[in-house]
Amino acid sequence: MKLQAASVAAISVLAIAAGAALLQPSHRAAPSLIQTVTIKPAYFAYRLPGEFLADGRVVDAARFDASPRHPLEIMTYQVSAAEYAACVADGACQPADSSGAAKDLPVTGVSYLDAVRYAEWLSSKTDESWRLPTDEEWAFAAAERLGDDALGNADSEIANPAARWLTAYRERNAREGRDTLPKMRGHFGANSRGLYDIAGNVSEWTSTCYTRTHVDAAGKSVQRTENCGVRVTGGQHRGYMTNFLRDGKSGGCAAGMAPDNLGFRLVKDPAPSFARRLWQGMARG
Amino acid sequence: MFTRRETLMSVAGAAVVAAMPAAPAAAQEAANIAKLPRKKVTLVQPPFVHEHDQVAKGGPKVVEFTMTIEEKPVVIDDEGTVLQAMTFNGSIPGPMMVVHEGDYVELTLVNPATNEMPHNIDFHAATGALGGAALTDVNPGEEVKLRFKATRTGTFVYHCAPKGMIPWHVVAGMSGTIMILPRDGLKDEKGKPVRYDSVYYIGENEFYIPRDANGKFINYKTLGDSFPETLKAMRGLIPTHVVFNGRVGALTGKNAMTAKVGQTVLFVHSQANRDTRPHLIGGHGDYVWEEGKFANPPAKDLETWFIRGGSAGAALYKFLQPGVYAYVNHNLIEAAELGATAHVIVDGKWNDDLMTQVSAPGPIRTN
Ligand SMILES: [Cu+2]
After folding, report:
1. Out of A57, A225, A255, whose CB is closest to B326?
2. Structure confidence at residue A103 (pLDDT)
């Protein structure tokens, strides 16, 4: 495990060095110059996203200690408007709905589908493997900025489904009065892992699908339905957004609060080993 | 050559000249009114309504109100869009006044010298002189006092109506509501008394904010600057915002309305310019005076009620279930996209008999 972490770090250093040396455009894929942070596996307190039901009533998901199996390499900053614009200029991405002209603003007004297209484009441009983080990876990277979306399972709620709705409404209101205009990247500062702008005013898409899980008395999952038309977003509070929406506000229900803005940052998977590439090449014929 | 401000002022000046001075009331009547008890009421900001008796105590009174007109830029949505607004007493809508049938309403209308425009007030509840507008034209630096008799019961709109510029002043925020209660209070269709535990006053406005070449809302430096293009936008008849109480989200979150299960709430809804259709999602209108006039029996058990542009209506509802209710204009595009949504936070015990989730959502069973 230790060895692997070291080699990943080495590759990213190499990639940056190689990128710096190869600034001229070339038809061959060039490694990226994108700043990333590599986080070693560690345990963190985590609740699964989605809705959990016990005995037919909505409850908080259980909190447990999770840990990624491998080091996580993730962008230091959210993808910027300028970076996204390069994909648009290349004809691979749809223009974002944000009107922010300043290049160092995070890109906003992008859907989950836009983010996936950008990751594919960036991967092909750099010959690297970029993708959206899962909710668990995002939560891990968010560290101390990860909000807890538990509402409590008070006894009084057992007979009163409205209690949870009221609690959720009041909790979200406590965060009111915020500035919703996107700020220059870095404005919201770095967290303890060195990631900037986590839980600022731009929520970030993750690849995790919305799920509804029925749990038994012991909290074990007994039944699960998944809806990948809705993806989890990470931010000041966790959100669930229809994958083609670009504006958080239009995704909210009549009596709820929605994310201020929708953007994203990507995770970079380690480059496949030489042997694996060879095998992939052979498999493709 | 006139500057724009001078042009606007001269139109109002003509109106002042045209308005005849108030004919002196018959001496006897004046003496009678002079004998009536007087009551000074301090107005409060919407959605709240000043304290009042539902059933009048004693005989008719002269009820004194003062409103100061404030012209000021106001933010009308979360994106920071600015409306160069004109307001009665600083709020959109203007505050709600409550009196009883037979009372005299005595309003002092103040137009501070810091304002740019002449203003006046047209009470739909009043009789004659264009609802009082012809007797209340005030230029910046002036004040006027009007008295009218509350002869008809109901909820009524009031609005500014300066000659040549009426719609602009109204859609810039200058409208409000007066409620004239029967002396013995509200009654159902059989004449039985109906009471409320609280009253909320929702003023709906639609705004027409001009956009620049890039589609962005223009932030004008002054009220006068905003006029020509706002007028063009108004003529298109398609509002950019449809809101309750002056801005998107004014009655949501921390400012959501509140109630408890078992409480009866009177919702007064006014729209001075355009039709609307309030609806309480998950609730009803137990008794609804759609036209707002209490001499007519209330309609019962309504799902949605129609408020004609230029009127105010009233709906009474007893909350039976806790939760977060959305109070919307049920043109849902206007509710969700343009802003016409409010929330009511209702605490209390859930009633399983009225509704229960028999089985929670889960996989579709094949056996
Ligand atoms: Cu006016």
Report:
1. A255
2. 75
User: Which whole number is the average pLDDT over A208-228?
Assistant: 87
Please name the member of B335, B345, B349 whose beta carbon is closest to the beta carbon of A166: B345
Which pLDDT does position A17 carry in this prediction? 39
* A237 belongs to a structural domain: yes
Q: Look up residue A247 and give its two tokens.
A: 């504006």
Put simply, the answer to whether A255 touches B324 (Cβ < 8 Å) is yes
DSSP class per residue in chain A: -HHHHHHHHHHHHHHHHHHHH--S--SS-------EEEE----EEEE--SEEEETTEEEPPPEEEE--SS-EEEESSPPBHHHHHHHHHTTSSPPPS-----TTSBP-S--HHHHHHHHHHHHHHHTSEEEPPPHHHHHHHHGGGPPP------GGGGG-THHHHHHHHHHHHTT-S---S---TTTT-B-TTS-BSTTSS-EEEEEEEEEEEEE-TTS-EEEEEEEEEEEEEESSS-EEEETT---HHHHS-TTS---S-EE---EEEPPPPHHHHHHHHHHH-
Is position B304 annotated as part of the catalytic site?
Answer: yes
- Domain holding A54, by residue range, is 36-273
Q: Active site residue: B122, B204, B286, B291, which one?
A: B122
Could you tell me if A179 lies within 8 Å of chain B, comparing CB atoms? no
Residues, CB within 5 angstroms of ligand 1 (ion): B 119, 160, 169, 174
Task: Name beta bridge partners: B181.
Answer: B100
Cα separation, A155 vs B360, in Å, equals 19
Q: What is the CATH number of the domain that holds A100?
A: 3.90.1580
Q: Inter-chain contact A160–B216, Cβ cutoff 8 Å?
A: no
In this predicted complex, what is the ipTM? 0.73
In tens, the pLDDT along A223-243 reads: 888 889 889 999 988 888 888
Task: Find which of B214, B216, B251, B324 to mutate to test the A interface (most A CBs within 10 Å of its CB).
Answer: B324
Note whether residue A230 is domain-resident: yes
pLDDT in tens, B17-60: 444 455 555 778 888 999 999 999 999 999 999 999 999 999 99
Please name every residue paired with A242 in a beta bridge, in sequence order, or none if there are none.
Answer: A230
Choosing from B87, B117, B137, B159, the catalytic residue is B159
Task: Answer whether A163 touches B (CB < 8 Å).
Answer: yes
Please give the interface size between A and B, counted as residue pairs whose CB atoms are below 8 Å apart. 72
Give CA–CA dist B181/B174, Å, rounded.
23
What letter does residue B57 receive in the DSSP assignment? -
The verdict on A275 touching B (C-beta cutoff 8 Å) is: no
Q: Which of A57, A59, A151, A160 to mutate to test the interface with B (most CBs of B within 10 A)?
A: A160
Q: Let me know if residue A161 belongs to a domain.
A: yes
pLDDT digits (tens, 9 = 90+) for B327-337: 999 999 999 99
For residues B207 and B171, the answer to whether their CB atoms sit within 8 Å is: yes
Q: What is the H or E stretch that residue B271 is in?
A: strand B264-271
In a domain, A28, yes or no: no
User: How many separate domains does chain A show?
Assistant: 1
Tell me which chain B residue has its CA closest to the CA of residue A212.
B362
Residue A273's pLDDT band (boundaries 50, 70, 90)? low
Residue B94 has pLDDT above 60, yes or no: yes
